[in-house]
Specification:
Radius of gyration: 23 Å
Shape: globular
Number of helices: 16
Largest sheet: 8 strands, parallel
Number of strands: 18
Helix content: 25-40%
Bound molecules: 1-deoxynojirimycin, calcium ion
Length: 556
């Protein structure tokens, strides 16, 4: 297959397109269902290309659509170079890709290199093979401790299950060993010192690049290299995904050896024209982000700081400046994100009293404290315009353009997320942000498909549907559309200048071309500065910007 993009594409020729792009994350099983089986699919995405075009985005990022038993929403991959038959075929994928490219929308796919699923042919082979075999070396199999090897090889704690070691007999193995998994037991970790593993991922990157895929989102990018030297070091409590502060020498996560892997990947990316791009999901100390965002490695790295930054001027200003300084230091571009498929929807966070412990609130099905849905959506829109004005790329999550809230009352019997199923009564999990999208006000599953939805949708989805919001020029959808289209025209050099305000709850910055952005977080109504108003996230009242509002304006 040709290594240059096919000529049918309506894509720009700018090699730096990714530096200031707007990328929309699609969670395929919950986006649009074309055949009425309750599960979103590839043809569903293709059918919604006009909608994606109407958002004026530069790219979509598709969460995994590969064959999977869905032990972790598709992040348990059976086959990296195929499409799950429940979601379609490779031909459907090609059709979708061509359709998106024709409309000038690029495509990122998700690469999950830390672990496969237990149904991957290599893991099945490993389970059937003998200890010490070549097949077992692709994963991390070890003898247990105790007189008969009945205890796990180390005290390492997994992100989902209590231990990060599972006895192979769970999956029918007869070698008496344990295997490592940082996530669920159905997600066995690869041994990244194994050359076959390394080569297979190069093959996967080429496979999708040859099909015309433009970029890759790298799952748990900081996790691949591990300290497997024995005796194993101790980690009796889960130290978070990042093992922050270990300066590249932790047991797991953000070890220096990981960059050799990405340097090899970079050689593959650069064989294409334009070079393929990648964005790392790396929960690491901010100081370490540049190592992943280097143009010698992955090129870009998610900066998750706004996911946890309270909607408050001081915190937003500090977070913004730190991120910009970091990007400049590394000559990469900033990445902004408020939501993704692992997080409580940001409209909900911003409609709750900030003092509320959100985990407990979720466990109470959202009943222990009131949620102000209206102000949550309003603040969320203000936050979106704030970050869309900043230099760098913005990664958005499907449904945030509708101002959607978290679904907090999914009945226990319907819950799919291992984060809940394995942490029963401690963590409600992430299904609440993965409920299929509402397209219409009425009808089966609000227009998601004709045969229901794989997670139950609440009644209030009707008012947040695309159909309703399209008719309302002040809806979140209308404002996202206008903002994203304007952003393309207004884009400027990757710097900002801060302007003084008379209220500590108000932030004002501008870009070199005269594009200004002012946000009133929680202050009194604030007089609108002089300039031509381009867009406001909420209407001005008597010429004043009220709390929870961002205004873009033009002033030379
Ligand atoms: C991060 C993904 O975003 C999340 O959904 C998944 O559970 C873990 N990585 C494991 O793959
Ligand atoms: Ca379907």
């Amino acid at each position: 297959m040709s290594k240059t993009l096919k000529k049918t594409s309506g894509l720009s020729t700018d090699k730096n397109w990714w530096r200031q792009a707007a990328i929309y994350q699609i969670y395929p099983r919950s986006f649009a269902d074309s055949n009425g089986d309750g599960i979103g699919d590839i043809k569903g995405i293709t059918s919604r290309i006009p909608y994606l075009k109407s958002l004026a985005i530069d790219a979509v990022w598709l969460s995994p659509f590969y064959p999977s038993a869905l032990a972790d929403g598709g992040y348990d991959v059976d086959d990296y170079r195929n499409v799950d038959p429940k979601l379609g075929t490779l031909a459907d994928f090609d059709e979708m890709l061509a359709g998106l490219h024709k409309e000038g929308i690029r495509v990122f796919v998700d690469i999950v290199p830390n672990h496969s699923s237990n149904l991957h042919e290599w893991f099945k082979e490993a389970i059937d093979a003998k200890p010490g075999s070549k097949a077992r070396d692709r994963y991390v199999f070890r003898d247990g401790k105790g007189v008969n090897g009945e205890l796990p090889p180390s005290d390492w704690v997994s992100h989902f299950a209590p231990s990060s070691w599972t006895h192979e007999s769970t999956f029918g193995g007869k070698g008496g060993q344990w295997f490592l998994h940082w996530f669920a037991p159905e997600q066995p970790d690869f041994n990244w010192e194994n050359r076959e593993v390394q080569k297979d991922f190069l093959k996967t990157l080429k496979f999708w690049s040859d099909r015309g895929v433009d970029g890759f989102r790298i799952d748990v990018a900081h996790g691949l290299a591990k300290d497997l030297s024995e005796p194993f070091r101790s980690m009796p409590v889960h130290e978070g995904l990042e093992q922050r502060g270990n300066k590249g020498k932790g047991i797991w996560g953000d070890r220096n050896e990981v960059f050799a892997i990405y340097k090899e990947w970079r050689k593959v990316f650069n064989q294409y024209d334009p070079p393929r791009v990648a964005v790392a999901e790396a929960y690491v100390h901010p100081e370490r982000l540049p190592l992943y965002a280097s143009t010698k490695t992955l090129g870009q790295c998610f900066d998750f700081r706004f996911i946890e930054t309270p909607f408050e001027a001081g915190a937003y200003k500090a977070a913004t400046q730190e991120a910009i300084d970091l990007a400049q230091k590394n000559k990469s571009s900033c990445t902004w994100t408020l939501s993704n498929h692992d997080q409580i929807r940001h409209a909900t966070k911003m409609g709750l009293n900030p003092a509320v412990e959100r985990r407990d609130w979720m466990l109470s099905n959202g009943t222990s404290h009131p949620l102000d849905m209206k102000s949550g959506t309003q603040n969320a829109l203000a936050a979106t315009l704030y970050i869309l004005g900043l230099p760098g790329s913005t990664y958005m999550y499907q449904g945030e353009e509708l101002g959607l809230h978290e679904v907090t009352d999914i009945p226990e019997k319907d819950i799919q997320d291992p984060q809940y199923l394995r942490n029963l009564k401690v963590d409600k999990g992430r299904d609440g942000c993965r409920v299929p999208l509402p397209w219409t006000k009425t009808g089966s599953s609000f227009g998601f498909g004709t045969g229901g939805a794989h997670l139950p949708q609440p009644k209030w989805f009707a008012d947040y549907s695309v159909e309703v919001e399209e008719k309302d020029p002040s809806s979140p959808l209308s404002i996202y559309r206008t903002a994203l289209a304007l952003r393309k025209e207004l884009q400027s050099k990757e710097v900002i200048k801060w302007h003084k305000t008379k209220d500590i709850s108000v932030l004002h910055y501008s870009r070199p071309n005269g594009w200004h952005c002012i946000t009133n977080f929680r202050g009194h109504a604030y007089p609108m500065p002089k300039g031509e108003i381009l867009l406001a996230s909420s209407p001005l009242v008597n010429g004043r910007i009220t709390a929870g509002t961002t205004v873009w304006f033009w002033k030379k």
